[in-house]
Amino acid sequence: MIGPGRIGRFPVACALALAACQGRGPGPDTLPSNLPPPPPFTSNCESGGADIFIPSPGPGPNPGTPPSNEWVLRRRFVTIDFGALEAAAAPGGVVRLRLFEDVCFDVVFVHDDRSGPPDIFSWIGSIPGDPSSTVVLAWLRGVLSGSICQSGIPGH
Q: Is residue 1 domain-resident?
């Protein structure tokens, strides 16, 4: 498990694919005309939750292989504040997921899951006001992966 205050970097658009349907990323390719309209995301977070995504000028030391431009509509690089994420892993804990300046989610901690290998931490929460929502953030050795599922937004 990553200790408090430990920070890692990764491209948010790769880990949280939900953000990819909100706009256009760098590259000369035009967007396909058959894309659905973007879902109604929260434009401003309203909680006092810790913002776990801190802007970064570029990828970290081991960025992996980036996806091809045809799979990325938007991207931004961030540093992850794992200490803030772990601190919010308690009843009533709240974090802010600011995927982009115009895409932000407040997430309330529900429970953690340690049913897998002991060094993988899973943080499970929900979006206030959407009791059917589920947000899962899991990390291992500085790599974070996540998903955001909201009611009324098919496929996310």
A: no
Check: CB of residue 86 under 8 Å from CB of residue 72. no
Using the predicted structure, report yes or no on whether residue 28 has a pLDDT greater than 50. Answer: no
Cβ atoms of 101 and 36 closer than 8 Å: no
Give the tens place of pLDDT for each residue, 59-81: 777 666 777 777 777 888 888 99
Instruction: Give the domain range for residue 138.
Output: 7-24+42-62+71-149
Q: What is the pTM of this model?
A: 0.66
pLDDT at 37 over 60: no
Q: Does any domain span residue 32?
A: no
Q: Could you give the CA distance from residue 31 to residue 125 in angstroms, rounded to a whole number?
A: 32
128 Cβ neighbours under 8 A, 6+ residues apart: 47, 106, 108
Q: Is the dihedral of CA 76, 82, 83, 85 positive or negative?
A: positive
How many structural domains compose the chain?
A: 1
